[in-house]
Amino acid sequence: MSFCQHLEKLGLPVNHPHIRVYILTEAAADPAMLARMEFHDTGHRPIWRLDKLAGMEKYSPWLCEITRDGEFDQWLEKVADKAPLTVLFSRMPSDELWQHLRLNSKFAEDGRRFFLRMGDPSALHLYTASLAYQPSSVRHLFADGQIEELYFHHPRAELACRAQPLFEQHLDSTAECEGCLVWIDVPTEESA
Length: 192
Fold this sequence. Notes:
Order of helices and strands: HEHEEHEHEEHHEEEE
Number of domains: 1
Strand content: 25-35%
Structural class: alpha+beta
Shape: globular
Radius of gyration: 16 Å
Number of strands: 10
Helix content: 25-40%
């Protein structure tokens, strides 16, 4: 089974004709993650400009488009029970999504610069939840509906849930609305 097949089994929209499947992860998530992306010739790039952030390669969020049933997809399923990552389902081409995420990954306050650890699903989950009651922020994060949903996957933190903007909802009986977000818990192997 591949990672995309696993996601499909969980009810995620991997087969939608207009949706592309991406992951956001940190190189630190798995020691072989970056090497595997390169080895399998999977399109990937860091969200942060690493030429100005020496030593931050393993903490930078890396965006990678998943080709269903490709070699990287097969490998990813083998490490998915340990590797923390966020899956994005988007209508945007890779370059547009990269630019959008890049703009959302940095903040300035009181003359100081901050970077959101988007590659850490727990951090991105908390950030996304903090926006629940800010409609314009939710709309902006989800690129005016171009990002269909996020799936936060962090096995060690027991985090397995989906987030959709309310304006793109696909509600089922397990969905929970909070502000402008719809949250759907995803069953894990342990809870099944």
